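During the reporting period the student researcher (J.K.) took over the structure-prediction task from the postdoctoral fellow and processed the backlog of single-chain submissions. One of the processed entries is reproduced below for the supervisory committee.
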Amino acid sequence: MFSRKEVVEKYCEHFLPGEISNELVVSELKRRSDSFVDEQLKDHFTDIVYECPFGKNGQQILITLLFEHKSYVPQFPHLQLLQYLLNGWKSQIRQSKKEESRGIDLRPIIPIIVYHGKERWRMRPFSDYFGDGWDERFSTFLPSFDYHLTDISSYLPEQLSSMGLEALEAAFLAFQMGRDEEIFKQQFERLQSYWQAFKKNELYFDLSQAIVVYLIRVLKKTPMEVKEMIQYVRPTQKSKKDWTLEDYLIEEFEKKHNVDFYKAFEDLYEAQTKAQQAENQAKEAKNQAKEAKNQVKEAKNQAKQAENQVKEAKNQAKEAKNQVKEVENQAREAKKRLRLVEAETALRNRNTVKTGLELNLPIETLMKMTLLSKKAVEEIMEQIEKEGEGQ
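J.K. obtained the following structure tokens:
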């Protein structure tokens, strides 16, 4: 939309500082084809470059409109702009060398940031980036430049309408609508009124078409909604002497394909929408198939894990059984050793009691020597006497 010279003229007249706008010869404003946005900056800005005479001597200056891509305010805009300005001046130097100019006078560049995000943009000087504690004696070594900011989201439609700037109001409103679906719904009737008014002014009618293309591109609208927008910007009949190149191209298209250009555009958009829906459905089906495959894989992994757990449980049971068997063997071995010890102890006690009897030792002494009770000693003595009688 800012590629339209008439829109930029109105913008420069009403939004640039008075000491600049009053000296600009906006009637001689020319758009340039070059861009100073490099690979590092393309994720941040898109630019449109104009040149314009300034002052009584007609000094040529460059006015660059930079459209901020992000929906949030960058932390260090001066750093990006410094790189952008350097690109612009390097481009001027290269051009002067091509033209073999002896003296190279760089042109001033006015960087204008056009921002249409929801977050409020607060401008601050470059020196603020260095915090409160920096020593001002270093200011000599810092770049000193600024930029002009137009925060579209801060303007109400009524403010621009009161200025009588319908073209700018329509352009600003389109940017706001492109960022917020609710604004699109609330302000669509206002935009329709501009389109109706612009139909009577061929200068602004192209702007209407640019707005429609922009809104179709940034908003996800149904074919019927697109058709409703397009009907407001269908061209009225005009004499061939007033035709633009676009009109001749449209006529050539309609003759070649035997169709109405705008109807073909609507059909194409509807077909693209259906194709996009089919693509989305195919993508969704592919994602679902992938998810199902992952679920099957997960189920297999869980089954394998369960199988391993069962196997591990069997191994543990087998190991436990072996441990029980080992304990039983150890118990039997302990019983054998115990019986052997008991037999050896009984024989030793018998020999002790027998020797005591031969020495006529009292029973109390034998009890102490064998650590047996009186009854147990008496039983051994009785057994020895019976064996003696049997011999």
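The committee noted the following: The mean pLDDT is 81.
J.K. will present the remaining backlog at the next meeting.
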